[in-house]
Amino acid sequence: MRHFKRKLEALKKHRLQRRFSQVAETIAKNGIRRNCVHSLLLAISFLTIAPVYGNRIANDREFANSLYYYPLVGFIIGMILFAVSRLTELLGPGIAAEAMIILAWVMVTGALHLDGLMDSADGLFSGRDRERKLEIMKDSRVGAMGAITLVVVILLKLAFLDNLLITDKAWVLLVAPAVGRFMMVYAICRYPYARSGGGLGAAFGGEAGLPKLAGAALLLLAGSWL
Fold first, then answer.
1. Angle between helices 144-163 and 95-109 in degrees, nearest 10
2. Domain containing 221: what range?
């Protein structure tokens, strides 16, 4: 009888432990899912004009974790551009349809990359020393080289889109934004932050590394293959 009671108690204890482990596993899985969604929303908010992250303030680790999802955000942007291209087909072939695609591209991203492009052009083409170039890049005012570079890039985009076949254009519009966002991850993970002090780039680079780059690359390859 005592032996039977001990077995019964051991069985109850085992079931209780297993239940606790299942609960802990469920909590962990929910936490992982929540963190993934959290990082994706942060990436969307940073790379587009959609304020899905709200007014929350992200720390360095959260910014770095959002790098995984940059290619995915690129594919989302690409799908929007693809939809716009289908709508502009009603206008018929021509430069106006391509201009509408580029306009949508600029609006969806909030001109984030074009702003950075102009700042970089002003600094890199200034002919000054390294520290002065960094100061020029940080200046919010746009110089002549930045404006010229912007015009050249927009014209090149118009020319390339206008010369693409309809079948090729669909694939390019879907994949190009994802590749561009992946290259951001590559630059953040592979190159040191240029400034000695703090900044937004430092927030990303401090926690970034090879795992983020590998994860973003896998997401890019998977999306491109699909």
1. 130
2. 67-225
